[in-house]
Protein 1
Amino acid sequence: MPTLYVSDLDGTLLDTDRKVSPRSVSLLNEAISGGALFSVATARTPATVSTLLSGVSCRLPLIVMTGAAIWDRDSNTYLHAAFHSEQAAARLLDVYRRHRLSSFIYTLGEDNLLHIYHIGPLSRLERQFIAERIDSPFKTFHIPDNGESELPGRLDRVLLFFCMRPTAEVEPVYDEIRSFTDIRPVYYHDMYGDEIALMEVFCPEASKAAAVSRLAAIAGADRIVAYGDNVNDLPILEIADDAVAVANAVDEVKERADRSIGPNSSDAVAQDILRLMKGEK
């Protein structure tokens, strides 16, 4: 059966330097040239995905922003995007402002570019986040020095609310909005440690699982092998025929996976894909 191989990036396909190692690039390209259907499902946007996968000959569209969009690298177009309703976006803004929680707001413009806004003051970490992405041709920032953007008149093109703030600031908001039926919040800790919480808030239809299922249909795949390391990868592991955790994955991912492979520092994902692809042939 045609198989779609889909991997998370950070902590999974990317090594400890947050890059796709030269060996992984070589192994993946060998698998792809042999017919493997390979893509990624990541929280990152096209701006960083394009750079990270520059050496990988991906022939399929890529799942970005935790499934909020499917992006075709060859044409630089969004094949699918899941937007918040205008009412849900406005309600979230009210909650964030009441709790004084700063957040980035990602919208997709008619020009096929991401337009990014911000509410609340900017932290040092947020300023660094912007500085590392400000020159990207894939997105435009509308964030003044004080951090409080003038928001667009229409909120029905909002893909994502994203905050990276101290855990004590984020938890109360997450506890309030997690029961809302018109949004889907994802709350976790990542590379910044337990002191900084990351929270992504999408519309209910936006998920890695929904995007992977859609991509499998596009690719004509009847089977899915998925790789992950963190809780935001659980949706794709749950729908996969073969759910794979890397050795450095959090315990919850290892417990829910069908099997485990080596750590992200050992090219384990690329090796596994090539091994499986050769076995299929």
Protein 2
Amino acid sequence: MKRILVTGASGQLGQEFGRLAMVVKSAEFVLLSRSEFDICMPSALERIHEYRPEVIVNCAAYTAVDLAQNNAKDAFAVNATAVKNLACAAAELDIPMIHFSSDYVYHNNLRKPLKETDPTRPKGVYAKSKLKGEKHFLASHDFPMIIRVSWLYSEYGHNFPKTIINLAAKRDELNVVNDQIGAPTNARDLAAAVWKIIEESKSTADWNKISGIYNYSNDGTASWYEIAKFLVEESSGSCRINPIPSKEFPTAAPRPRYSKLNLSKFKATFHQEIRHWRDSMADCLKILETKHQ
């Protein structure tokens, strides 16, 4: 039975691993929230061996994109320095580690599905901290795995779908940007995909073979406007969704205009089917509706 240590267990993705832990019988998940295991604290990292993990899945992250603009120290501490220290601790114990990054690291103005080898030109503190974390990890571990994710959401925490559903129930119309293009990622699908990777990787040789950077999101392409419209229609709402350009909705941190990830490498390496974002989001919406009944 594999023993998997999951950091950041109280976040969106971490909670999906918690749900997964209840149905997977061939592994034991050690789920640690920040209060239980703060990756920024050297004293916590010194205790990794006590948990006896065979794999580390790092879901801990500073994800407040706009707040990061005025909290660079905190963002880099969690997204970069702590990643380096965690990777070093894992490497010393010869433990495979999976770390999650962001589509924000690209921001390269290319208007085609972004490949892992495309230029990275992050703008904003959050984006720069995520890329710094990637570089630290790659330099600190012999077989690192980084998964770049776009527009993560789930039934947990705060995210775009939940915000739209809540606002649409209270308002007659909403303005949503239509010139930022990408694809949402259902955290439940991502957790399941990562579990399959872990399940099929039996040895250090396996991890060496598949180490590197991968893109992951749900399939398909959409703007935030299209996603919002889909959510309202799928939930039989009457709120009107109006498309607006990003310049009419300024944010503290710059957003990439094109974040559609090329999924070819992930599909070819792991032979996993990836659901279309509409199908996956519809399933999540059903879960949210059930919760509120």
Protein 3
Amino acid sequence: MSTVLYLVVPCYNEEETLPTTEKALSELMSDMIKRGRISENSRIVFVNDGSKDKTWELIEKYTEENILIKGIKLSRNKGHQNALLAGLMTVKDECDCAVSLDADLQDDIGAVEKMLDEFEDGCEIVYGVRSKREKDTLFKRATAQGFYKFMRFMGADVIYDHADYRLMSRRALHELENFKEVNLFLRGIVPMIGFKTGTVMYERGVREYGESKYPLKKMLSFAVDGITSLSIKPIRFITTLGVLLLFASIIMLAYSLVRHFTGHTELGWTSLIVSIWGIGGLQLFAIGVVGEYIGKIYLETKERPRFIIDKYIGK
């Protein structure tokens, strides 16, 4: 029996790019169905994440015209990660496997069939990994690569140069459902599932319409969320720094006592002020890091729903 494949595509203000995306994905799925590569029950699911343009109107139109298209409308904007999770959790019992990808199609859709090959060879999770970023701007390439290196350094187990382009089997999706975090960082959560995994390399393309949903400011915020959701390494850094400062203060105390008893005491106004500002800044920084973790604990204990589905349409 052919594999039932679902493509899950989160959409936020994608009115400009959606017509091109719908056409390209429909052609891909139709071709694979005709060749018997996947089941005729396979579908493309667009998840509208509270878009302010005509994204949802387009999705409704496509579901009426194209049997391959389904649409999910969230009750409000919940962010890319929650929209992606909403799509995956909605389709997990309808498919054998699901591939998540962005609406801008910068990730080469030609890799989908290669992911299917890996799935049929027994892989429960297949990561789409960018082989090169030659079409990215120098700034985008540097910040993106820095993001992955920094995340790994800070203790977050992420796949280098992998975003959210991946295949997950039904079994893996059901295991993903057991992760109840409100603060979602799927790039770090999915590797925790384990199982047999595979990797498919592809070349990242250029976004033709609209703007990137991950500018530098959002990328930094995303990194902070990922690190504090997956690792306590920042707190350990602060603890280590505190111990080092304690030893430094003991050395300075011994030095000051020696200077005092040898009659070389001097007015140390500059060093005193620098020390006060330095220690004060460190304390505020430490409180901020700890506060970030406490804030996440606060949100997790509320157990609020990560998404609310308003409509699910399509055949």
